Amino acid sequence: MDTAAKPSAVQPHNVSATEVGSIITGERKVNPNTDPKSQERKPTRTPDPKFKIFSGAANEPLAQEICAFLGIPLGQTKLTKFSDGEIYVQILENVRGGDIFLVQPTCHPVDHHLMQLLLMIDALKRASARRITTVIPYFGYARQDRKDKPRVPVSAKLVADLLTTAGADRALVVDLHAPQIQGFFNIPVDHLFGSPVLVDYFKKMELPQLTVVSPDAGGVERARFFAKKMEAALAIVDKRRTEMNVTEVMNVIGDVEGRSCLILDDIIDTAGTLVKTAQALVDAGAAKVYACASHAVLSGEAISRISKSALTELVVTNTIPLTEAGKNEPKIKVLSIAGLIARAIQSIHEETSVSKLFL
User: Fold this and answer.
1) Catalytic pick from 157, 229, 239, 331?
2) Cα–Cα distances in Å, from 145 out to 71, 124, 201?
3) Strands (E), the chain
4) Residue 20 main-chain phi, psi, to 5 deg
């Protein structure tokens, strides 16, 4: 009779944050041990041995940046697979009574990273962690937040229930596709926005005659908020299908002729809508078209579409790690939100207000 397969022996998945030579903050690389600004913003309190941050495999570089910002090492874990593909998790540090933060966006491969997150929560819970906060920079399945057709699941609610059942005590998320998803959780949720980082970047660019553009009616509230912070005009692109299997008609609502346009969205997936929106703005007389989003999913032919598009630049945050093709695409610019998430984690640990981090 066959015995169960044992996980292959591997080195611990994570490395200490002190081994990281530099971190990316905004646009420039800095050494957290020598950069004056980095030293100024690090906490001056004595490190709490019960305060620990762990990371899954989805976006370990972001977790390393968060730990470097806070001046603490990243927790040691072992992450591997059985020969049949089952995930194996082991926490390699004592977490009994600890205030634990677990960083893991549920990005591609979504199901693998979600399952890894659930298993890590369970491992921490069974190791007697006092409180487990899931830090989910990108919350997968968020676009399935309602029954828009007969006999379909509300997947976002199911994922929220899974996290709670696994043992999560809190959740920290960034730019949910729909803010009301917070109500799907039966635990406290802190909802951060990537807009502070994006607004700061575009303010420094000083784009002339700027108009912020929502690519659809559903994103108008987000675009209006962004336009107010940028002191810019607002426009909307109305997308309609005249018939089944007929290309959409893109109607631009607002004045964009001769202006710099900034398309704002939360997720860039296949980039089909983004590219068509950019072309519609150019056809309407826009001088230059930029775009920004918190989550660069960039699946399928997205990179190729962006490369060939009318976009001058696409600015995204590092909630999701880019593929090599994405890193090599000159039109794509990545900004780090590690500092924003780190400050939120510190506020939660110290039980101070997180609302000061919102624009």
Assistant:
1) 239
2) 37, 28, 31
3) 23-25, 28-30, 51-55, 77-81, 87-91, 99-103, 131-136, 170-174, 189-192, 210-214, 233-240, 249-253, 260-268, 288-296, 313-317, 332-335
4) -80, 120
Query: Residue 230, SS3?
Result: helix
Between 132 and 239, name the one with better pLDDT.
Answer: 132
Q: What are the pLDDT digits (tens) for 271-317?
A: 998 999 999 999 999 999 999 999 999 999 999 999 999 999 999 99
Q: Count CA within 13 A, CB hemisphere, residue 219.
A: 27
Q: Which two tokens stand for residue 129?
A: 């962690």
Q: Which residues pair with 293 in a beta bridge?
A: 265, 316
Closest among 228, 298, 236 to 267, alpha carbons compared: 298
CA 204 to chain centre: 23
Among 265, 250, 271, which residue's Cα sits nearest to residue 220? 265
Task: Give the integer Cα–Cα distance in Å for 309 and 278.
Answer: 8
In whole angstroms, what is the distance from residue 88 CA to residue 169 CA?
22
Instruction: Say how many C-beta atoms besides its own lie within 10 A of residue 36's C-beta.
Output: 8
Instruction: Identify the residue whose tokens are 């398309």.
Output: 263
How confident is residue 8, by pLDDT bands cut at 50, 70 and 90?
very low
Count CB-CB contacts under 10 A for residue 148.
8
Q: Say whether pLDDT at 140 is over 60.
A: yes
Q: Coil, helix or strand for 25?
A: strand
Is residue 239 part of the annotated active site? The answer reads yes
Asked whether residue 64 carries a pLDDT value surpassing 50, the answer given is yes
Note the pLDDT tens digit of each residue in 162-194: 999 999 999 999 999 988 999 999 999 999 999
Phi, psi of 174 (to 5 degrees): -125, 125
Left if phi > 0, otherwise alpha if psi is -120 to 50, otherwise beta: which for 71? Answer: left
Q: Which of 343, 342, 323 is nearest to 59 (CA)?
A: 323
Through-space distance between the first and last CA atoms of the chain, rounded to whole angstroms: 62
